[in-house]
């Protein structure tokens, strides 16, 4: 951010480990509601300056997990440490150090957007300049508009601004871009990226694959309250799946010659007349080898594309169900 860094304050104030880079540590978290297991033994780790995304379908337990970490819900069992503090018992101490994006809650419908943000800023000893936040979230034009007259996306962005204005060390973003158009979503992504650069730890939940892939350093995919996979977006989309390079060219090329120039274990096949696939890890060198081979035999490859598994595919493979609602 162009504002002063949050990290100086972070290193000064963490109870239970002043130099700790750990922002969030969750172990064996369990929470049930009337016999329904919402969270069934979850472990999470998040360092300062990182984004951890919880990804899962409706009812997977994302919001329950986030609300426990925020101190709004008590777990049945397990341990949760946020900035070295217990969110249930140390809630007052934690409140000033975390940012929580409330979904429409806490707003006075008649208050103007700018007034609301300045009011939130007034609770902080060292707030971010509200005008800077309004500007970076595209809210300057609606500064004088009452909250109830803002669009859903504008209300979401104002809620995000209110969560950030106190210069938190850690922020919880539950579906931060739900209901936003593409332009607003990109503004929010850029701001989240700056926060990360300032050393803020960010826990976000999302249904959106592109949001998770764009923002997350680490992902935890949850289903029925348990982790079904975790890792970086790249690890998850590569794990268990070969990448593929596909192209079109004249039919019935002699692929033994291509196989011979590729590294061992790569498989080349003509899947339909004139449609070719190379299966294996598609590195820049492999791409160059394939195009050089085409040039050597004077063949123009068209529709050349590299395919990887999407997070949607990963989820489908793991659970047999679609991730989208
Ligand atoms: N206060 C509550 N009382 C009863 N059941 C609840 C409560 N909160 C959550 N649940 C149940 O716990 C499970 C997990 O819900 P949760 O809202 O945490 O999932 P989620 O992954 O955030 O879903 P969504 O993406 O739809 O918000 C669901 O079966 C839900 O119905």
Order of helices and strands: HEEEHEHEHHHEHEHEEHEHEEHEH
Structural class by secondary-structure content: alpha/beta
Kindly report the name of the CATH homologous superfamily of the domain at 7-97 and 168-237: P-loop containing nucleotide triphosphate hydrolases
Radius of gyration: 24 Å
Bound molecules: adenosine-5'-triphosphate
Instruction: Look at the structure and give the CATH class of the domain at 7-97 and 168-237.
Output: Alpha Beta
Tell me the fraction of residues in β-strands, as a range.
Answer: 25-35%
Average pLDDT works out at 86
Number of helices: 12
Shape: elongated
Strand order of the largest sheet: 5-6-7-3-8-9
Total strands: 13
What is the CATH topology assignment of the domain at 7-97 and 168-237?
Rossmann fold
Main sheet summary:
6 strands, mixed
> Which segments are poorly predicted (pLDDT under 50) over 5 or more consecutive residues?
1-19
Helix content: 25-40%
Which CATH architecture of the domain at 7-97 and 168-237 is right? 3-Layer(aba) Sandwich
Gap between N and C termini, in Å?
34 Å
By oligomeric state, this entry counts as single chain
3D architecture notes:
With 325 residues, the protein is of the alpha/beta class. Among the domains are: 7-97 and 168-237, Rossmann fold (3-Layer(aba) Sandwich), CATH 3.40.50.300; 242-307, 2-Layer Sandwich (Alpha-Beta Plaits). 34% of the residues lie in helices and 26% in strands. The chain has helices spanning 7-13, 62-70, 91-95, 113-122, 130-136, 152-164, 182-197, 209-215, 233-238, 255-261, 284-296, 311-319; strands spanning 22-33, 36-47, 51-55, 77-82, 98-100, 170-174, 201-206, 218-223, 226-231, 244-248, 267-272, 275-279, 302-307. The chain has a 6-stranded mixed beta sheet with strand order 5-6-7-3-8-9, with helices on both faces. A 4-stranded antiparallel beta sheet has the order 11-12-10-13, covered by helices on one side. Strand 8 and strand 9 form a beta hairpin. It is elongated and about 70 Å long. Bound molecules: adenosine-5'-triphosphate. Adenosine-5'-triphosphate binds at residues 33-34, 36, 38, 56, 58-64.
